[in-house]
Design goal:
mainly alpha; single chain; disordered N terminus; Farnesyl Diphosphate Synthase; about 70% helix; two-stranded antiparallel ribbon
């Protein structure tokens, strides 16, 4: 890709967005568990950052080309360029390369499509979660009202579909299917708010549709563009699904363990009534008065109850249980990569998967 300053192409309005948000490194020493940096090679870290910069530059240029269209683009750009790690598109590029792809510029529009679609879901998520902040900054509906936030989310969806629509029908179908599954899963999650009868199966169905589906669809689509065999396409789709599930399980733990690097205050999921796996597991383990107390805390949660909630989750070993499941899904994902020959690209994909599943645990 041509390496040029984005200042050569953007308007003053976009410049103010970039000055406000800037770019955040993908991997920093203080974002990984103690001793974990040694497990990610310098080559992998450099490759991740190289891909992230290319993706970021392409997104910035696309927003720059439209930013004078009005406030909707400015607000969308604010959310799109607000410091995401770009894990999904980075994984797409690595999947493309391991499947034999040689022309990464062929993938870039699709990688951007997935980021636009993902960002659209975040805007709409914030609305019905009544979230006040995302990635450390006020949400769009909080600052600019519900109507504008809905329109911004719709605009992001349209841009994502327009980018994805450049490809063949197989890829368009994948995009349509996973977006439909996101909607189905969002409704299911709403229906399970504060539902103490939510089962692990209910939870996993929501996660597969809402979080893991985009990982799977991205890897699958990348393999198609690379000209992979049917076996390789299926393997990469399954790999993405397993990593996506593990990713959500990690988020569940980070929400409870008080890590705000995921862009929201600790306990946000509990406060919003979301039945995450540690809560579901703990409810199945506790009995009698301890279960009654746990149910009462979940149903009437406030931050004064946080320490008591953590104590009950620790007593039921629900954190350890979730960590075991994260490792199991990671192991399954790695199993799907065994059909590919050992290579530097495979090592990068392994390292990225480890980072996704072990960040700050």
């Amino acid at each position: 890709m041509v390496n040029r300053s984005i200042s050569d192409t953007h308007s003053p309005r976009l410049g103010s967005l970039l000055a406000f948000y800037g770019r955040r490194p993908l991997v920093k020493k203080d974002t990984l568990p103690r001793g974990y940096m040694a497990r990610i090679s310098e080559g992998s870290v450099n490759r991740f950052e190289e891909l992230r910069n290319e993706i970021e530059q392409s997104l910035e240029e696309m927003i720059a080309s439209r930013v004078n269209s009005g406030e909707v683009v400015e607000l969308a750009g604010r959310m799109l360029l607000a410091g995401g790690k770009r894990l999904r598109p980075i994984m797409m590029f690595l999947a493309y390369e391991i499947a034999g792809g040689k022309e990464p510029e062929d993938l870039m529009p699709l990688a951007k499509a997935f980021e636009f679609l993902h960002t659209a879901t975040l805007v709409h998520d914030d609305i019905y979660d009544e979230a006040t902040h995302r990635r450390g900054v006020p949400t769009i509906h909080t600052e600019h009202g519900l109507a504008k936030a809905i329109i911004v989310g719709d605009w992001l969806f349209v841009q994502g579909y327009a980018l994805g629509g450049r490809y063949n029908q197989e890829i368009v179908t994948i995009i349509g299917n996973y977006c439909s599954e996101i909607a189905v899963s969002e409704i299911s999650q709403i229906e399970h708010i504060n539902n103490l009868k939510t089962t692990p199966e209910d939870y996993l169905n929501i996660v597969r549709g809402k979080t893991a589906g985009p990982f799977s669809g991205g890897c699958h689509s990348a393999a198609i563009i690379a000209g992979a065999s049917d076996e390789q396409k299926t393997a990469l789709a399954n790999f993405g699904m397993e990593i996506g599930i593990a990713y959500q399980l990690v988020d569940d733990l980070l929400d409870l363990k008080g890590d705000e690097s995921i862009g929201k205050p600790r306990g946000s999921d509990v406060y919003e009534g979301k039945m995450t796996l540690p809560l579901i597991h703990s409810l199945t383990i506790h009995h009698g008065k301890s279960r009654e107390r746990l149910a009462e805390i979940i149903s009437n949660f406030n931050y004064d109850l946080f320490d008591e909630l953590i104590g009950l989750l620790e007593k039921s070993d629900s954190f350890s249980y979730t960590e075991i499941l994260i490792q199991n899904h990671f192991d399954r994902a790695m199993k799907y990569l065994e059909i590919f020959d050992d290579s530097e690209i495979k090592q990068h994909l392994f390292a990225l998967s480890e980072y996704i599943t072990k960040r700050k645990l």
